[in-house]
Structures are given as structure tokens and as C-alpha cells.
Specification:
This protein has about 100 residues and is α/β, with parallel strands linked by helices. It has four helices and six strands, in the order αβαβββαβαβ.
Length: about 100
């Protein structure tokens, strides 16, 4: 995805990653794309996947905030994806990377 965007868009982009986890892919986006704004969207809470309770990224928002503190174009949104979607007008974002359950 990053290579495609990098090769096909030559203006500062407004994008979002949904399902940030520990921010590894977000870091790749920041390091490789010309960004005007990047929204990092996750609820960072435990969730159920079938009978399993997944706690992997619960409470990691502070870790993400510290990781991206020096990037003034990064905004962290701590909401579930469907709630966060209500914050954006249609066609506002140039791209969305979805890495979410």
C-alpha cells in the first residue's frame, strides 16, 4: 500500500490508520509518505475474538502518544472505528489503512 500511494500521489496526504496497535505500520506510513495529517484510530481496549479475550494492545495509547509526540501532523483518536468514522466528512481522507478486528 505504501509504495502504491508513494508512487501515485505527489501532494501532502490526509490519511488514517484504523487499528494502530503498537504503531509499527503507522511508523512506516510516517517515514515514507508525504503527509499533511495522519489520524491514528484505535480503542486500545481488550476485546473478544470468539471465546478468547484479547488483551494484547489494551492500555497502549500512552505508548503510541509518546512514540509519535514529535510528529505534529499525527492525531490520536481513542475510539472504536465506527465511532471515529462519524468524525470525518465523506471524501475528506485520501487513504485509510485498516488493520482492525
Amino acid at each position: 500500500m505504501i509504495e502504491y500511494i508513494k508512487n501515485n500521489f505527489d501532494y501532502p496526504l490526509i490519511g488514517a490508520e484504523v487499528g494502530v496497535g503498537l504503531g509499527n505500520h503507522a511508523q512506516q506510513i510516517v517515514d515514507n509518505l508525504n503527509l499533511e495529517k495522519l489520524y491514528l484510530i484505535d480503542h486500545w481496549q481488550e476485546y473478544k475474538e470468539g471465546a478468547l479475550l484479547i488483551k494484547t494492545y489494551a492500555g497502549k495509547k500512552d505508548f503510541i502518544a509518546e512514540k509519535f509526540v514529535s510528529y505534529d501532523f499525527v492525531e490520536i483518536i481513542e475510539l472504536a472505528s465506527l465511532e471515529a468514522a462519524k468524525l470525518f466528512q465523506d471524501n475528506y481522507l485520501d487513504f485509510i489503512y485498516i488493520d482492525s478486528s
